[in-house]
Amino acid sequence: MINGIIGKKVGMTQLFSPDGTVTPVTVIKAGPCVVVQKKSAAGKDGYDAVQLGLVEERPVKPKNVTKPMRGHFEKTGAGTPPTRVLKEIRVDANGAEVNVGDKVLVDQFAEGDAIEVVGKSKGRGFQGTIKRHHFSRGPESHGSMNVRKPGSIGASAYPSRVIKGTRSSGHMGDRRVTVKGLTVARVDAENNLLMIRGAVPGANGSAGGGPDSSGGTGTGNGGGKNDIDVSISGGHPPANNGISGLGGSPKISAPVPHALINRPDPHTKIDDAPEGTGPPNFSALPASAQPEQIFASKKVYKMLVNMPNLNSATGSWILNFSELRANSEGPRLASSDVSAPAPLRKIDPKYPPTLIKEHVEGEVVLYAVIRRDGSVDSIQLVRGIDEKLDANAMDALSQWKFRPATKQGTPVELEAIVHIPFHAPPDR
């Protein structure tokens, strides 16, 4: 799977939680990206990787693309337009499912994901030892002539040379920097924005152009303040997709708007969506059918919510939700106008040690309604594992609190199918 994306640093801001807590975040314009080249261990390259190109709102003019790079994009055979920034990302053995022209979007990340960011630090030019290496200054009184000088840099008679690696004045910044241990604070898939808790290296407002920080190839000469865009690794791809962040249309030719959390079926007819008149009857579904079929032809969105206390295959709860409409709500609007709900309070279900020892594992599937005030009710069991685990999962979900979803600024209600994994930790 592709476990990364390319983006541009927008700047820093603050997020305020309902209890008044302030979180400093860095806003990244991440993607959309397109797979430009595919490398495989079975081929001449000898390793599995893909080359991503960052699709920008201001495309590259053909006259500004060099002939070698023009041939590189034409050789893909997928009609992929040239991009200013290219970045190679290693993939696992499942990378065989990736095709040239596939999209990589920001919705592969979820709130709470641990990620690492690679960028190019701000260039500081030629700097002295105090600023570059945090040396202490000398005394400033009694005629001292050694205030900001570096001091002795070696012995005299032996070895009569400057030891290699001696810290001295020189060029500062403008180099590749990797920051690990960062956390995703919020994902705005509609606007391709990723808000990361903490600081990210590099200047704001990169205008593109130039090579990227990890050996990528630029197609233009650009004029931005920061030659390099940031590369982000981490996140959790959707459970029903073997390729991280890929979905919808398999090809891309320009930056087009996409759905909020996950791309719905483009052939969906919104006008044919049934109205919500009561709790759905899951017993009418075939035994092998997915519970999400009760949404019929309505647009279905997907959200992955990290739950660190559950050691599962995905490490996340999976919420598939759709707008809950009633006959009296007047004219219908496109579901793509619905903004995402955001979990404000997450509660883990209890996993009794006795059941862990007995290897009682599986997935509990629940149906619930997310109200306009962010509360969760109308919870019913769709598929269970164990009577105790089923009750714990329902009790935990009832305590969740969301920032409500909105449509054109008005809160709306959602109905959701929630998949809760129970898998015993491997060390128990």
Question: What report would you give on this structure?
Answer:
The protein has 428 residues and is mainly beta. The protein folds into two domains: 4-123 and 173-234, 2-Layer Sandwich (Double Stranded RNA Binding Domain), CATH 3.30.160.810; 270-422, TolA/TonB C-terminal domain, CATH 3.30.2420. It has four helices and 21 strands. It has helices at 67-74, 129-133, 353-357, 387-398, and strands at residues 4-16, 22-30, 33-39, 49-54, 86-90, 103-104, 114-120, 125-127, 170-172, 176-188, 193-197, 230-234, 301-306, 316-323, 342-345, 362-370, 376-383, 401-403, 406-407, 410-411, 414-422. The strands form six sheets. A six-stranded antiparallel β-barrel has the order 1-2-11-10-7-12. It has a five-stranded antiparallel sheet with strand order 13-14-21-16-17, covered by helices on one side. The protein is globular.
